[in-house]
Amino acid sequence: QVQLVESGGGLVQPGGSLRLSCAASGFTFSIYEMSWYRQAPGKEREFIARIPSAGGSTNYADSVKGRFTISRDNAKNMVYLQMNSLKPEDTAVYYCKTNVWGGSRWDGYWGQGTQVTVSS
What we know:
The chain is built from no helices and eleven strands. It is 0% helix and 52% strand. By secondary structure, the chain is mainly beta. It has strands spanning 3-7, 10-12, 18-25, 34-39, 46-51, 59-60, 68-73, 78-83, 92-101, 106-110, 114-118. The strands form two sheets. Strands 2, 4, 5, 6, 9, 10 and 11 form a seven-stranded mixed sheet that branches. Strands 1-3-8-7 form a four-stranded antiparallel sheet, with no helix packed on it.
C-alpha cells in the first residue's frame, strides 16, 4: 500500500527557514518523480516543486524559485523541501505527491499534509 507521510511543518517568522520531510513506502521510490504542493485556505492546491527519480533537473513554481530547494535520498525513501526566506504568503498546508504506474495507468498519491505558518 502506497503511503506518503509529511513532517517538519510548524510556526516560523518571516525570513526564517524550515525543512519539510516526506517518508515514502509501498512502492519502488527510486524510479518515480516526487513533488511538493501546497494549499492555503480558500485557494486551489498549488504546485511547488518536482524532482526526477534520480534527481537532476528540478522544477519550481515561480513564487518559490530561488528560495525553496527540493531534494531526495533514494536509499532512505525520503524527499525533502528546504524552505528559506519564508514569507507570510507561504502559509499553507504542504503536501508530498507522486504518480505510481499501476500496470496500465498512472495512480496519484498524496500525503496527509503538514501545516506551515509564517507569522511574526
